[in-house]
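Q: Give me the 3D complex with zinc ion.
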Amino acid sequence: MLAGIVSDISQQVLRTDVAGMPLEWIDYREAVRLYHADQVAYQTGTLLYTVFGGYSSYDGTRSKVGVNSIIATHGTSQGLSRDRDKYVPPLNNRTLFKRDANLCLYCAMRYPTRDLTRDHITPISRGGGDTWNNVATACRRCNNYKGGRTPEQAAMQLIAVPFTPTYAEYIYLKGRRVLTDQMQYLLAHIPRSSPLHARLSDHLADGAEIVDVHFHE
Ligand SMILES: [Zn+2]
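A: Here is the predicted complex, encoded as structure tokens.
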């Protein structure tokens, strides 16, 4: 059973390693499991919710766990810490569109996710790869117009340089609803030179949570 305090139960928890490096988003079940398994080294952020367990047959008290928005845990995720710098996140449309802030990188208009496509800047038919650096968010109209041509051939110009997200950036991109304290935490792990750094800083200055309204599963 669960008592919500600050936010609803669907709010994801940011899990980090003991050194504070962001690892992944976890749900409340996984968070409670980690607390019970004594895997939580320390917690930061804010209290999200309190999860109540069963009554003790020994003394009648009830177990409860307060789950914070950011928890540092022992152990790592898939040996990630070692290869973090070389990590290339998997490419998928949801995180690609979020990387580009739902803007068509050709006409600079913002669209709902359903109206966006993945454009291969150098078309696959011309040897371009299906990789972060060769893909751009494009509206259907621009993508159709460009067809099997390169931007030069189509006389189209990209409004931003495509980039491969770092690990911390990818975690941010995957977040469905990123709370202010989680955003601040991730921001500290995102290079200042990254376009996402500027965007997150702006969001924080506005005092707004980032809610992924375009999310479709
Ligand atoms: Zn467009």
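A quick observation: The helical segments are 28-36, 80-83, 93-99, 140-146, 151-154, 167-174, 180-187, 195-206.
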